[in-house]
Design goal:
Elements (H helix, E strand, L loop, with lengths): L5 H15 L9 H32 L8 H12 L5 H5 L1 E2 L2 E2 L1 H14 L3 H25 L10 H7 L20 H17 L6 H15 L8 H11 L4 H18 L11 H7 L1 H13 L16 H21 L9 H22 L11 H16 L4 E2 L5 E2 L5 E4 L2 E4 L1 H51 L6 H8 L4 H13 L8 H9 L7 E5 L4 E3 L2 E8 L7 E7 L5 E6 L1 E3 L2 E7 L6 E10 L5 E3 L3 E5 L4
Parallel strand pairs: 8-16
Antiparallel strand pairs: 1-2, 3-4, 5-6, 7-9, 9-13, 10-11, 10-14, 12-13, 14-15, 14-16
Length: about 625
């Protein structure tokens, strides 16, 4: 059987034999060694920049507060403090997930940090660092000549600011409960790292299985580790015993996962996909390409950005090319099967999101960006492959042999050259897209983070003053759980000084009481923004009773303002598309205003915007 990428592997062996031979070996100059060392150091520093930015992001925008799903963490902690913690409590289903291992970590955080959510976010960051490092080391293990700088696109993608929305935080980085996702990702990386070792021993296989079990019982996405690991085992030509052991362990883990499983309704489901194939396909492509801007408010009123769809089509085509080129034949030499396995993981997740969320609309896709970028990462690593030699600058270069050896004999190298030419073209496209993603995504992610930070502060204020808050406002601010359930858990969190109740912030909010300004606020554009043409205005409101409306007002002075329009309620706020050409250029104060059914008005704190339209 000819290994996948056999031409490259042959070139690598040829290069290796020449390099190892005493006649071809040469003693590098001292200056060349220093230059190479400097390039490697600069490469490592470049990789560290996105990582440092990720932790700065948490430090700058994180708030130690309880929101939405995190209330179930408080419930688990309460059972532990009362001595009622049991396997049933830890194992109980949360939406579509089994989160046994995240629950154990939450209990540990309760006893060590008073369940500090920012610490939980930092812990998720550490898991992401471990995930990225393991994937890079696994790839470089079979590509030892690869320059560290070649992996910068991988790090940029894994630590992207893109993703999330006004309700789930940028890239889930600022949502402590998302720790379960990061744990599943790290478990995936550990499994693939172990399965891709040169030598497969029983101990290594057992450790890979154990990691996959941890991932499976951290998030439902962890179950994808099993089919992806199987792909890697087959491409590496592992023994039948190893493959059977992996399959049996995966089937047993899945069977236990779905034992007494409650299938969640209302998420679109498979029935929607079967009855609406074209919208579901559109959703799938959108989820694949929705990693540039992330924030829905930058898109057309219909919600479907043409750029996202075109990019999704392009990346899907690249993924098919990768799977056809490198994912159909055994390859036990190059690093490409690892990329193929990760590509399958990204595709499986995009498909799962489509099946479960397509019926809810496009706005669901950005919150899963941390998984969807794996498709991009997998394609890039597969195309990066393994260099047969390195250039003077440390960058990979391919050795093109005059012929390709296989079981059938020697074949001309022309097909090899053609395929590698396509590979180089595709990988340049991916690098360009990743650069665009970084340039456009960082401002978008920071904008989301500023908005979410304000949402977190409002939620903290409401949580501390939970006794003064009407039910509708309480649910709008801290999560769609029954108000009585939230009040009960908030009382327990205050008694045991958990999360924000262990900080001076709680005492400050309690002294000042519930702020009237939290009733509504402008969330887009941001304070000080420059606007032109048709601009999307978005406001948050904590009043959702029938007959309540939200509108926007514009003023140049506090005494004179103008009503510019009534907003439309959407899944991501109250939105109005405003034509800025209706007013002269200049600075204005923009505010949102809630009109209650009884005629009462509640206005937000105004923000400043600069209208700049060309004459």
């Amino acid at each position: 059987m000819t290994p996948s990428g056999g031409a490259l592997a042959s070139g690598e062996r040829l290069s290796g034999s020449l390099a190892d031979g005493p006649q071809s070996a040469s003693v590098p100059e001292r200056g060349d060694l220093d230059k190479s060392r400097l390039v490697e150091i600069l490469g490592v520093v470049a990789l560290a920049i996105p990582v440092a930015a990720h932790f700065w992001f948490i430090h700058r925008y994180g708030v130690n507060m309880i929101w939405n799903d995190a209330w179930t963490d408080i419930n688990v902690i309460e059972q532990a403090h009362k001595g009622n913690l049991s396997l049933a409590v830890l194992w109980q289903q949360h939406t579509e997930n089994r989160i046994l291992f995240p629950n154990l970590i939450v209990v540990a955080l309760a006893y060590t940090t008073h369940y500090n959510v920012i610490v939980e976010e930092y812990l998720s960051g550490v898991m992401l660092v471990a995930t990225t490092a393991l994937l890079i080391m696994a790839h470089r293990r079979r590509a030892p000549g690869m320059a560290w700088l070649s992996y910068l696109p991988v790090v940029v993608l894994m630590f992207t600011f893109v993703g999330g929305n006004l309700y789930y935080g940028s890239t889930s980085t600022l949502f402590g409960f998302a720790m379960s996702w990061y744990l599943a990702l790290m478990a995936m990386a550990v499994s693939l790292f172990l399965l891709d070792r040169w030598a497969m021993t029983s101990v290594v296989l057992a450790a890979a299985i154990a990691a996959a079990v941890v991932g499976s019982y951290s998030s439902i996405q962890g179950l994808f580790i099993w089919p992806v690991g199987l792909v890697l085992l087959l491409l590496r030509g592992r023994t039948k015993r190893a493959v059977v052991s992996w399959v049996v362990a995966g089937v047993a883990t899945a069977a236990l996962f779905f034992y007494h499983y409650n299938v969640q309704a209302g998420n679109g489901g498979l029935s929607y996909g079967l009855s609406h194939p074209l919208p579901s396909l559109k959703f799938f492509l959108f989820s694949v390409g929705d990693n540039i801007m992330g924030q829905q408010l930058t898109r057309p009123p219909s919600g479907w950005g043409d750029l996202d769809l075109l990019l999704g089509i392009a990346v899907a085509v690249v993924a098919v090319w990768v799977l056809v080129s490198f994912g159909t034949r055994r390859d036990d030499a190059s690093a490409r099967p690892l990329g193929v396995a990760i590509t399958w993981l990204g595709l499986l997740f995009a498909l799962a999101v489509t099946v479960s969320r397509a019926g809810q609309g496009f706005w669901q896709t950005p919150r899963f960006a941390m998984f969807e970028v794996l498709l991009w990462v997998g394609c890039y690593l597969a195309l990066l492959g393994r260099p047969s030699s390195t250039g003077d600058d440390g960058s990979p270069s391919l050795v093109e042999p005059s012929g390709v050896e296989s079981e059938e004999g020697i074949h001309p190298a022309a097909p090899f050259r053609q395929r590698e030419a396509v590979n180089r073209l595709v990988i340049r496209f991916l690098v360009l897209v990743i650069i665009v993603q970084a340039v456009l995504g960082v401002p978008s992610g920071l904008k989301d983070a500023r908005t979410w930070h304000q949402e977190e502060l409002v939620a903290a204020d409401v949580t501390v003053n939970v006794g003064q808050v009407p039910d509708g406002l309480l649910q709008a601010a801290v999560g769609q759980w029954p108000p009585g359930y939230i009040r009960q858990l908030a009382d327990f969190a205050r008694t045991d000084r958990l999360s924000l109740f262990a900080t001076p912030m709680a005492a400050s909010y309690r002294r000042q009481g519930l702020l009237p300004s939290v009733a509504t606020a402008v969330v887009a554009p941001t304070d000080g923004a420059v606007v032109s043409g048709t601009t999307v205005l978005d406001a948050r409101s904590l009043y959702h009773s029938p007959g309540t409306t939200v509108q926007f007002r514009l003023s140049r002075t506090a005494a004179h303002d103008t009503l510019i329009g009534r907003a439309t309620g959407t899944n991501y706020g109250y939105v109005l598309h405003w034509g800025t050409t209706t007013v002269p250029n200049g600075w204005y104060q923009l505010s949102s205003e809630v009109v209650r059914p009884d005629g009462a008005l509640v206005r937000s704190t105004p923000i400043w915007i600069d209208v700049v339209n060309r004459a």
